[in-house]
């Protein structure tokens, strides 16, 4: 049932769907972000006066606490970073995929370098901390332009995984606190960053053979080609 008699059924249903996605499916956000953006665009086009009321009622109904920023009728331009800030962040990314902890990054995320250094977890690497902050800033303030930065964010997450840093989750918590965001670690891909090393002894041998199968097949093909070549010369 919609919040009141003035709520449009389609608006109410769309808000419920968005709350359900953000409340229960953030780990798979990459799979539905485009359709969610389409739904938000549709809501804005309706110019419905009671979207906020629908969001409150939807959170109550589904037992969620999704911020209304995800389904608001108009973007909050007073807090939305400029496009120049996004472009600057893109230009600051290193070729490896990380960001450096420096005044330029601090200016983009709206903090001083002193604040960033003081908020850094004690054992955190500067580059890991800066990269996590950049990812949080992108997800927290630039979701409307996600299509423009999703690839560089994926590159950053791949870099984080390669570092195998033990305190990435701690950096994510501290970064959310510093930037005033509530970005879930699953949305950043951080829940997959720290991976335990694989013990080959614990892996079934048939799995190892399957993993190496392409190499064996390639060697067999080359060998057969060589035999065919020799046969053609002899006969």
How would you concisely characterize the structure shown here?
This protein has 235 residues and is mainly alpha-helical. Helices cover 64% and strands 0% of the residues. Helix 1 packs antiparallel against helix 2 and helix 1 crosses helix 3.
Report the β-strand fraction as a percent range: under 5%
The computed structural class is: mainly alpha
> Low-confidence stretches at least 5 residues in length (pLDDT < 50)?
71-78, 192-200, 202-210
**CA(first)-CA(last) distance:** 83 Å
Q: Mind summarizing the main beta sheet?
A: none
Number of strands: 0
Mean pLDDT: 78
Helix content: 55-70%
Question: What would your notes on this structure say?
Answer:
The longest helix has 30 residues, at 205-234. Helix 1 packs across helix 3 (51-62) and helix 7 packs across helix 9. Helix content is 64%, strand content 0%. The protein has eleven helices and no strands. The chain is mainly alpha-helical and 235 residues long.
Descriptors:
235 residues, mainly alpha, extended
SSE topology:
Layout: H1 9-24, H2 29-46, H3 51-62, H4 83-92, H5 103-109, H6 113-119, H7 126-141, H8 146-163, H9 168-179, H10 185-188, H11 205-234
């Amino acid at each position: 049932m919609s919040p009141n008699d003035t709520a449009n059924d389609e608006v109410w249903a769309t808000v419920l769907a968005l709350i359900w996605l953000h409340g229960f499916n953030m780990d798979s956000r990459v799979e539905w972000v485009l359709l969610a953006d389409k739904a938000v665009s549709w809501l804005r086009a309706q110019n419905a006066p009671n979207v906020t009321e629908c969001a409150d009622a939807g959170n109550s109904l589904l037992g969620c606490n999704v911020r209304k920023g995800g389904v608001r009728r108009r973007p909050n331009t007073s807090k939305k970073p400029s496009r120049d800030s996004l472009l600057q962040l893109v230009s600051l990314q290193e070729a490896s995929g990380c960001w450096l902890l420096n005044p330029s990054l601090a200016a983009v995320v709206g903090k001083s370098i002193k604040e960033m250094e003081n908020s850094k977890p004690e054992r955190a690497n500067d580059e890991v901390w800066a990269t996590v902050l950049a990812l949080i800033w992108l997800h927290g303030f630039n979701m409307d332009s996600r299509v423009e930065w999703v690839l560089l964010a994926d590159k950053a997450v791949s870099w984080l995984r390669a570092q195998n840093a033990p305190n990435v989750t701690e950096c994510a918590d501290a970064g959310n606190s510093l930037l005033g965001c509530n970005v879930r670690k699953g949305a950043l891909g951080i829940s997959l960053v720290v991976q335990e090393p694989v013990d080959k002894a614990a892996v079934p041998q048939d799995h190892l053979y399957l993993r190496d199968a392409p190499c064996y097949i390639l060697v067999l093909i080359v060998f057969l080609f060589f035999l065919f070549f020799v046969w053609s010369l002899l006969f």
